[in-house]
Amino acid sequence: xxxxxxxxxxxxxxxxxxxxxxxxxxxxxxxxxxxxxxxxxxxxxxxxxxxxxxxxxxxxxxxxxxxxxxxxxxxxxxxxxxxxxxxxxxxxxxxxxxxxxxxxxxxxxxxxxxxxxxxxxxxxxxxxxxxxxxxxxxxxxxxxxxxxxxxxxxxxxxxxxxxxxxxxxxxxxxxxxxxxxxxxxxxxxxxxxxxxxxxxxxxxxxxxx
Length: 209
Fold this sequence. Notes:
Layout: H1 6-15, H2 24-34, H3 36-44, H4 55-71, H5 73-83, H6 87-98, H7 107-116, H8 126-145, H9 152-160, H10 173-183, H11 192-197
Helix pairs in contact: 3-4, 6-7, 8-10, 9-10
């Protein structure tokens, strides 16, 4: 996707009250990650259903969606603000607060984090969340020291061994990608909205490869 013009960036900035210029990239990443349902609706009026299209066809659909993102970016920002005015501010707060607190013990941080990433909808026990935020706390120092990278596969395996409230092991790949994204916001996230956007097939949560 081609970059936005300086004038367009100024217009975008005016739409996001109090957001400094250096945060624009974070907002764009947020828009692409969190509002694909709105974008898809603008493209064809409904979410994709049925089997994913063939590779070439899917590529063309995705290109059209990116064109809509670029063309209607101000409208998308306005739509986010209409739906929930705290979306961008909570995202910002989580990144700023990450390096100011011990996230493994900060209950306010954990509550905001779980609400933002919709983690409370899963049947996950306290033990699982305790391990998750311990991994996040450790990972932020790993990233700061520049001596290692966040290993999403290892995060998945560590958390897989903790059974959910139904007594089952489950692969929570989406939440692992969101943890990696918190450490490096260039790291892409994966969830149902991203899957829908890229026309990906639905993976199993209960089968470990």
